[in-house]
Amino acid sequence: MAKHKNPEENIDAVTKLSLQFLAEAIGQCPTGLERSTNRDVVFAVLGFQYGAVQSAAYVAGLDEDVSSAIIEDVVSRINGMDRETVSKFLDLMPMLAKKEYPPISIGGKAIISFYNASTDEKKLTTAGSLREILRQIDEAIIMKN
């Protein structure tokens, strides 16, 4: 991701890229995702989103405070959630990241691959990584039952 001389341009670029990537990723997921009450699904989706936006902000050279504000903004906008609810979930993400929670690292890698993809087909494939995480969760749930 190209760094801009103006920090505001970096913030705008990270926000736009994150919204574009996450809209594409969520668009490839099963319908009804936004109504899921399965805790594993909710944390996987939010972890993926957190990792993606955090990674984009890091690559753009944004500091942690600015990065946190962008993450909260993007995650609340993309999910249609109020900031207070988003904030409660996001407060847990640094701890999950330290425990190497897979959706966070997958989201972080996926957005960079999305940004670097040379074709729309490659972008679509990269954005499908969230769908794959959810498929694995579904399989695990089926195995439990």
In short:
Helix content is 77%, strand content 0%. By secondary structure, the chain is mainly alpha-helical. The chain is globular and about 55 Å long.
Characterise this structure.
77% of the residues lie in helices and 0% in strands. By secondary structure, the protein is mostly helical. The protein has one domain. Helix 6 (102-116) packs antiparallel against helix 7 (120-127). It is globular and about 55 Å long. It starts with 6 loop residues before the first helix and ends with a helix. The relative contact order is 0.18.
What attributes characterize this protein structure?
single chain, about 140 residues, mainly alpha, 8 helices
User: What's the mean pLDDT score?
Assistant: 88
- Structurally, how many domains make up the residues? 1
Termini gap: 44 Å
Helical residues, percent: over 70%
What fraction of residues sit in β-strands?
A: under 5%
Quick one: how many beta strands? Answer: 0
